[in-house]
Amino acid sequence: MDSGSAIPPDWSPSGIVTLTTDFGLTDPYVGIMKGAILKEYAAARFVDLTHGVAPQDVRAAAWFLSKSWSWFPAGSVHLAVVDPGVGGERQIILAFHEGHAFLAPDNGLLQAFLPSSTLLWPLDLGRTGLPAPSHTFHGRDIFAPIAARLAAGTPPALGREALQGLGGVEFPEAVRCSDGSVDTEILLVDHYGNLISGFCPGPEEADSSLWEVGIAGHLVPGAKTYGDVGSGDLLALLDSYGHIEVAQRDGSAAQVLGVGPGDPMTVTRKSN
Question: Is the model's pLDDT at 2 over the cut of 60?
Fold first, then answer.
């Protein structure tokens, strides 16, 4: 399929641009990128999804965006710049899904959560009319102006053919064992030190008070809310993402257990 079919006929930009980066807030990079967007489209409306992704953690960025984009109105542009290969040969890709536009490096970030049938269009940088970019800040020099044009309703210059057959970063699988338990791992640790697992129970088993979690030599009981346990107690519960997480009331489960992303967890039904 050629790029003449890249922009869906129902694409109607809202002017909203969400931003997901690993830039942090200490340096001026986020502000500069916003300035570059406003320079192209002064009416853009920003939502900072997160700038706290750990440096180069493409998987975490993909997961945050996968759990967030659908809460925004159709017509939003979702810009994700976690780009370990900046300045190299990786391409910059654009995708449309359910009335939303997604712009990111071609490093598996979008492929991790968009359906495999989604067409991924590379930018034709030679036809964007942009000045030669720096080697280290494509967020400012390429991503920002292209996101601004999308938000304003101006189609970007795209390659002639969509990318095919490219794999994405992978989220940890939840493996069901013969005894009914589920083996998974810590996907990420949030700001509170909560350990978010790769296990997303179905609706029929979403009562987290029926589960318990084995992790780092501890068996953590399930509960429905943080308020169901005392201060300092560990608990396992269903979080706002729909995943089982391990938390410490009024503390950090990551700190008290000494664990982090990639460490194993086993979720089992309570014995009584």
Answer: no
